[in-house]
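F.,

This is the one I mentioned.
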């Protein structure tokens, strides 16, 4: 039976649509595609990537657009293309297989599977000659050594199931000493000269920064704050940060944050916005404030599609990596004139030798210039010129989890920057996401152009969106956000909790497509794990709702943190968001209920400004929310009630007394 032609033109993923014109007969992952492999009795060629991935484009141009490669692939395989951002469950299963076989992973991911989905050979990027040889060798092996292939795939499947067993049972209690241990281990890996943690390539450690800020607030130690400042400054002044338009690239290929891998991801920028806004709110640092404001503007100006936020900007423009962003001294002079061009070259560290390819340089900002007006004029002129260049394509897919992260970050930044417009943007996004991505009572993973895809939401989608909605409830007082967050958390508890291991969670739902292994990865990576995100949502909502439900949330939060405490004890750099949630938990978490009839109450504003990260802050008239039940103003004065867990202090009526109660500077 001849294979069907390429079917990706109807996909809801821009990444898949990029491959719709390939001569390779790609199809989406589906029962029909798997059935075709069974009918033809051929292995599956599975290629997993994402739209902003530079090496995915390279392999596509070299191999997937090549007629000879396509002929070999179509003849001997069923070819399936997957967007890892749309199907993170598939990505997780086969990435674990790739790492188990090769010791490393990455994208594009290239896997060869039996017709029932068991992997027997995996890798990442292959240049065309090697890939063509690989196709021939795998097809020959399938035909002539089938028993060996079946045995190898069984061994890999067994290893994946063993890995899925996860953490050993039991762990240390969640208490300040465990957090201090984790922080000490993290700081031991800090690059104190260049900022960040570990060696090149360096990824923005957003979750670690947020956790260290919370540690500083709990302990008042300057040490974790100094680490945040070193990394925050290094990234903000390096090439990983867009010095003209704001926003961060995916990672730096070097240890000095100079040359980025140029794609810009929604999730990175949402997480970094939260960290920089928190740093700005805690210290008033002008660089932190500026970077937070510019990153928020980048989200709204460059990634917004209507009111929701799209996934990424590509690393490439017209097939050339970074070409939109880099400059030579001659280009600066051409745009700005001799004097301003020479000045800009000094300010942005653009040299004749260059820091990137072909003598070009990525813009850096080693120090703030002494002429701010000139700087803004020059920056505006360069940005205008840059807008005439070929721009990187945008992946317009809207992912629920990452929009949840953006909602939280924009809402928190609205407080740090005293910018109500950011809260309004968060509310608009949440309104559309909830309306569009809830279908027949269940949450979906992604949409494109207002059309919701078929991919079911995973744990991180429910948890990140729930936390975003809980943040909105605290800042707006709108009870509908709390109700929807409770619905999301209830769905997570009902469909993702491991019934056999209290505190453990699966990443895919119990009624989702059954894969070879049900994904369950508790480690925080580029984004927080679904399990650490649901721990945050449970901890927060458990202190915002009355009744039996509150007790169930609290129990699940405690069990989740305890089940994953071994990560804080043994692998804290892979548990940054776990540490941030643990820091909130050991403080109670803190709750502040401000009794006031005035939405613009100075005491409520002070509570939001001063509260340590992870604190729950609500305000309004008595009985307007569960935290305000029976709590009223004191005489004619607004009153703040500070609680730690279920234990509450006497009310205070001044910002100074509130600061003392919270253990922070006013």
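My design for it:
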């Amino acid at each position: 039976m001849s294979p069907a032609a390429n079917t990706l033109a109807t996909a809801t993923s821009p990444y898949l649509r990029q491959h719709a014109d390939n001569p390779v007969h790609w199809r989406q992952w589906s029962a029909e595609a798997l059935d075709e492999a069974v009918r033809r009795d051929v292995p599956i060629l599975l290629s997993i990537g994402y739209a902003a991935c530079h090496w995915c484009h390279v392999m596509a141009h070299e191999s997937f657009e090549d007629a000879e490669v396509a002929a070999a692939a179509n003849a001997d395989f069923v070819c399936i293309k997957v967007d890892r951002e749309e199907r993170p469950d598939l990505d997780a299963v086969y990435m674990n297989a790739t790492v188990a076989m090769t010791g490393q992973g990455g994208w594009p991911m290239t896997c060869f599977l039996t017709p029932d989905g068991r992997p027997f050979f995996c890798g990442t990027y292959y240049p065309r000659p090697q890939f063509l040889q690989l196709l021939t060798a795998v097809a020959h092996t399938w035909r002539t050594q089938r028993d060996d292939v079946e045995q190898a795939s069984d061994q890999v499947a067994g290893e994946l199931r063993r890995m899925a067993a996860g953490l050993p049972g039991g762990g240390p209690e969640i208490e300040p000493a465990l957090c201090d241990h984790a922080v000490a281990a993290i700081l031991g890996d800090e690059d104190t000269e260049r900022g960040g943690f570990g060696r090149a390539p360096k990824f923005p450690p957003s979750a670690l920064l947020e956790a260290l800020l919370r540690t500083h607030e709990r302990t008042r130690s300057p040490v974790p704050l100094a680490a945040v400042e070193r990394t925050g400054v290094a990234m903000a002044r390096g090439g990983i940060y867009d010095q003209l338009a704001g926003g961060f690239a995916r990672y730096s290929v070097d240890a000095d944050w100079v040359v980025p891998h140029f794609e810009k991801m929604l999730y990175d920028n949402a997480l970094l916005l939260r960290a920089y806004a928190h740093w700005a709110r805690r210290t008033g640092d002008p660089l932190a404030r500026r970077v937070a404001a510019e990153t928020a503007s980048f989200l709204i100006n460059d990634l917004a599609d209507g009111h929701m936020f799209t996934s990424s900007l590509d690393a490439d423009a017209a097939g050339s990596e970074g070409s939109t962003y880099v400059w030579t001294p001659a280009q600066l002079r051409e745009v700005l004139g001799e004097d301003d061009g020479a000045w800009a070259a000094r300010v942005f560290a653009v040299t004749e030798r260059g820091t990137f390819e072909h003598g070009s340089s990525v813009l850096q900002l080693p120090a703030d210039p002494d002429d701010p007006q000139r700087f803004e004029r020059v920056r505006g002129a360069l940005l205008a010129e840059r807008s005439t260049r070929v721009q990187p394509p945008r992946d317009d897919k809207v992912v629920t989890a990452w929009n949840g992260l953006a909602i939280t970050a924009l809402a928190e930044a609205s407080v740090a920057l005293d910018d109500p417009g950011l809260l309004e943007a968060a509310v608009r996004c949440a309104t559309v996401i909830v309306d569009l991505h809830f279908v027949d009572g269940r949450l979906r993973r992604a949409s494109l152009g207002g059309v919701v895809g078929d991919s079911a939401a995973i744990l991180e989608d429910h948890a990140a969106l729930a936390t975003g909605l809980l943040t909105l409830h605290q800042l707006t007082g709108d009870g509908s956000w709390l109700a929807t967050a409770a619905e999301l958390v209830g769905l997570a508890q009902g469909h993702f909790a491991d019934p056999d291991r209290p505190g453990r969670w699966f990443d895919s739902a119990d009624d989702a497509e059954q894969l070879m292994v049900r994904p369950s990865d508790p480690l925080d990576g580029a984004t927080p794990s679904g399990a650490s995100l649901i721990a945050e949502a449970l901890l927060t909502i458990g202190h915002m709702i009355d009744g039996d439900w509150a007790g169930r949330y609290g129990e699940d939060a405690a069990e989740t943190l305890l089940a994953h405490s071994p990560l804080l004890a043994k692998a804290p750099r892979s548990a940054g968001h776990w540490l941030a949630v643990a820091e909130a938990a050991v403080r109670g978490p803190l709750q502040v209920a401000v009794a006031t009839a005035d939405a613009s109450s100075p005491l409520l504003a002070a509570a939001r400004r001063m509260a340590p990260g992870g604190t729950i802050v609500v305000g309004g008239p008595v009985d307007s929310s569960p935290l305000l039940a029976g709590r009223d103003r004191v005489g004619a004065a607004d009153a703040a009630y500070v609680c730690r867990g279920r234990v509450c202090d006497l009310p205070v009526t001044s910002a100074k007394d509130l600061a003392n109660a919270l253990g922070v500077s006013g």
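Residues 8-164 form a domain with the Glutaredoxin fold (CATH 3.40.30.10).

Talk soon.
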